[in-house]
Amino acid sequence: MKVIAEANQGVLKILARFNKKAEKSRLMHFVVETPVEDGVLLYNLLTFEMILLTEEENRLRNDLEYLKNQWFVVPENTNEKELADLVKMFTDTKQDNLEAITGYTIFSTTDCNARCFYCFELGRSRIPMTDETAHKVAQYICDHAKGKSVNISWFGGEPLINQTAIDIICNDLIKNGVEFKSSAVSNGYLFDESTVEKAVNLWNIKRVQISLDGTEEVYNKIKAYVYKDTNPYYIVLDNIGRLLEAGVAVNIRLNMDLYNAEDLMKLVNELAERFAGQEKLSIYANHIFEGNIPMAEFRTSEEWEQRDVLMCKLEELIEQKGFAFKSGIAKKMKTNHCMADSGRAVTILPDGNIGVCEHFSEDEFIGHIDKDSFDESVIQRWKVRSAEIPECAECALYPQCIRLEKCANDRLCFTQRKNGKLRKVQRQMRNEYQRWIEKTEVDETEDLDFD
Ligand code: SF4
Ligand code: SF4
Question: Does the Cβ of 404 fall within 6 Å of ligand 2?
């Protein structure tokens, strides 16, 4: 047995008051397992410890003393949800409540140069941020960052349609000595050579998320760009290459639906041929998200089953090609769901309205850049968590599961969504293990060097 990631000592201290002795033992519900070449990885989502067992040890795991001592194996009658609730109570720190705002999602425009049929912004107003508002946004950031470095995400519509607003904000922040770095959610069409140069040097851009819906024909049809006589698919692929060459990380998001799932497999193969070995390129797949309708509510359970099979295939291919996210396992308790309940991040709309969720560009605002106060009732509405469901009691994800009532993405829990999250944890476990192997190898090399 090998310890790959140490347990969180604070959590172990909280758990120390409980008795672990019993006749009959079983694996704790919060332990996730995944096979690797050298055995089986077990990761405890309550204590954050991860271990590697050989096949033999894994067969005998319920009797291993170390696993009993470290909460991988517990007495059969353990109510681990109670244990997790206690740990959560100790670790659920109070959020700052917008004292220093260090995360900004800025809508430079709500207009777009593409016309995707699934866009959640369809039917909403298409307005650009004026130069005057852009100056005010920069001033607002200066006033609210409280001397801290800020992260900006350029969002839209297509944020690059209104580069003037982005330029103004960045120039003003630089003049005022505010440290910042940025990212963008973009369709990638406008990242030509001069824009990439400006994005790196002026916008301090580190990452761009670009959605691709299929190979050439499918992509061009779905995106339905407003430009005539161009081949957007190849323009965007060239631009992805340009960003990577400039050292900007690119996350390609594949919007999967039943009609394009097979084509997305082809796309991953095409991307792998073109961008093989690009460390800064990652690809991930998501089910197409339609507006703010909760995911579970607009598809039948049969369709979800079908989708889950296709999603698994797609995720496997992405990982096999080496483009899956490389993030490791969580090491501490989660205290918020996303920017909406973080107390440290806001969205700023082209007209200066301030919100907390990027999917709400027309309502549910908490304030405006011209005012200094916030609407506390809206802030609190965004923090309301979804109620637990009976399945939570035995769900491996429970210690880290937070869902928000207002989040269409995550309000409802259903089998396929849960399976997707479990697969993500298993991928993170494999990444963590890989890093551990590499670190071990590095350590060994260093030892040899010292010899
Ligand atoms: S809501 Fe779903 S994913 Fe979260 S703990 Fe409950 S059963 Fe698990
Ligand atoms: S859609 Fe959900 S996850 Fe995304 S910002 Fe809004 S509340 Fe958060």
Answer: yes
pTM equals 0.90
Q: Confidence band (pLDDT; 50, 70, 90) for 448?
A: very low
Which of 320, 353, 388 is a domain's end point? 320
Can you tell me which atom of ligand 1 is nearest the CA of 386?
1
Q: Pocket of ligand 2, candidates 359, 384, 406: which has the most ligand atoms within 8 Å of its Cβ, to mutate?
A: 359
The answer to whether position 423 is within a domain reads yes
Amino acid identity at 24: K
Average pLDDT for 93-117 = 83
Which residue in this structure is represented by tokens 């809508």? 107
CB 346 within 8 A of CB 104: yes
End-to-end CA, the chain = 28
Percent with pLDDT over 70 in the chain: 93
Among the bound ligands, name the one nearest to the CA of residue 407. 2
Two structure tokens written together for 4: 């790959």
Shortest-distance ligand to the CA of residue 338: 2
Mean pLDDT in residue range 202-222: 96
Dist CA 407 CA 412 (whole Å): 9
Give the pLDDT confidence of 327-385 residue by residue, as tens digits.
Answer: 999 999 998 999 999 999 999 999 999 999 998 888 899 999 999 899 999 999 999 99
Determine how many CB atoms are found less than 10 A away from the CB of residue 436.
Answer: 18
Find the 61 Cα to ligand 1 centroid distance in Å.
Answer: 26
Say how many domains are in the chain. 2
| CATH number of the CATH domain containing 149 | 3.20.20.70
Residue 7 near ligand 1, beta carbon < 6 Å: no
58 and 141 belong to one structural domain = no
* Strand (E) or helix (H) holding 256: strand 249-256
Range of the domain at 65: 2-91+413-450
User: Within this chain, do residues 77 and 109 fall inside the same structural domain, yes or no?
Assistant: no
Do 270 and 238 sit in the same domain of this protein? yes
Which of 320, 336, 365 marks a domain boundary? 320
Sequence-ordered alpha helix ranges (H) in 202-300: 216-223, 232-245, 261-275
121-172 pLDDT, tens digit each? 666 778 999 999 999 999 999 999 999 999 999 999 999 999 999 999 999 9
| 165 and 118 both lie in a single domain | yes
- Does residue 277 sit in the same domain as residue 307? yes
Regarding the beta carbon of 364 and ligand 2, being less than 6 Å apart is answered: no
